[in-house]
Amino acid sequence: MSNGTTVRLEIRSAPIHAELTKIVQSVRGLQLAEGKAAADLLIHEIGNDPMQDFELVQKLVLSGAAREVFLTSARSEPEILLHALRSGAKEFFVQPLKADEVRATLERYSAQGAASRRNGQVIYLIGSKGGVGTTTVAVNLAAGLRAISEENAVAVIDMNLLFGEVPLFLDVDPAFNWGEVAKNITRLDATYLMSVLTRHSSGIYVLPSPSQLDRLHAATPDTVERLIRVMREEFDYIIVDGGQSIDDISLKIMELSNTILVLSILSLPCLINVRRLLETFKRLGFPREEQVRVVVNRFQKHAGITLKEAVEGIGRPIAWTIPNDFAATMSGINQGKLLQAVAPRAEVTKNLQDLAQSLTDKGAAAGRG
User: Fold this and answer.
1) Which domain holds residue 75?
2) Which of 41, 119, 141, 223 is least surrounded by Cβ atoms within 10 Å, i.e. has the fewest?
3) Beta strands 320-323 and 292-299, pairing class
4) How, if at all, do strands 292-299 and 259-264 pair?
5) Which of 49, 336, 313, 27 is nearest to 173 (CA)?
């Protein structure tokens, strides 16, 4: 992963391309992106069909392929400048270029980006079956990441489309959900994002799923990708409660995720589903094997199926086990409170805090099996 701010040039004129390349390479903190890779900044030259270029720019901004777009052209009529602004472009360089002005603009952009943009980790939780505790783990894992350091900015997205319960588990009443964000995706920036999130008393932020099924149609893989990209700039950790669904939207989020936690319990139907999920990931080519961690929830040493048998059944190690504590977890669910609040000294609370620690950059990679 790049440490600098990436800039992609889509310039038709060879002399202009060479001049911009030289300017970008002279600005500290900027580096040229290779080929057609997604970039932080796209500098695009308007050609003979300006309207087609403006439409392309809108699509790039919407999809998140470029966080920001600057335009350049030899034409500077008011109509061109107006359409450039409406397309989502933030700067317009008139040709012939004034190198000092272009460099100053890029230096400001680089400085602002270094100061304000994070590069958050996306942690996606998917249940092997309904009722395995995905939401309980999601909200308490988020709280654990926040507890590691008050500087950690942590958000939870509820992508359980039909039965999202994150607000119930945290006793919050959000005014907005990601369905509404998807419908207003062209407005999405850091300011709009933070205005629609709900802050829990623990310091974590919540973006729930739509409560009405007719609002689900607004979400597409492109809009969700744009949402995730903006959230990564504002948060250190984004926990996604994915429920049990596998569809185009969930696959897109998993493609963008750093870590996938596959939750199961030691039951035959769940373990069969885990194996099917792992086989699906392998067939798709993502997420990569090293990104996926199998987590056994409600673990009891004397269960009907042993960990050894589970490992043999799914064909890979168990990365983590969470002890069974029905009383503490149900108390938290029924009160809409985190385990930190209802059972701060319980083994399950400590275990989830350790899981959070293992997922940080400084945490242990192995987990517990």
Assistant:
1) 5-116
2) 119
3) parallel
4) parallel
5) 336
- Find, among 295, 338, 359, 343, the residue nearest to 128 by Cα: 295
The last residue of one of the domains, among 84, 116, 148, is 116
CA atoms of 350 and 354, how far apart (whole Å): 6
**C-alpha angle with apex 242: 241 to 246, nearest 5 degrees?**
175
Give, as one character, the DSSP assignment of residue 351: H
CB count, 10 Å around CB of 351?
20
Question: Which residues, 6 or more positions from 243, have their beta carbon under 8 angstroms from its beta carbon?
Answer: 126, 127, 134, 159, 160, 161, 162, 163, 164
Phi, psi of 32 (to 5 degrees): -75, 135
| pLDDT in single tens digits along all 369 residues of the chain | 345 688 999 999 999 999 999 999 999 889 898 777 667 889 999 988 888 888 887 777 666 667 788 999 999 888 888 888 777 788 899 999 999 999 999 998 888 765 555 678 999 999 999 999 999 999 999 999 999 988 899 999 999 876 689 999 999 999 888 888 888 887 788 778 888 899 999 999 999 988 765 555 567 888 888 899 889 988 999 999 998 888 899 999 999 999 999 999 999 999 999 999 999 999 999 899 999 999 999 999 888 899 999 999 999 999 999 999 999 999 999 999 999 999 999 999 999 999 999 998 543 333 333
Using CB atoms within 10 Å of the CB of residue 288, give its burial: 0 to 12 exposed, 13 to 18 middle, 19+ buried: exposed
- Is 364 inside any structural domain? no
221 lies in the same domain as 187:
yes
Q: Does pTM top 0.85 for this prediction? A: no
129, 186: one domain = yes
Residue type at 173? D
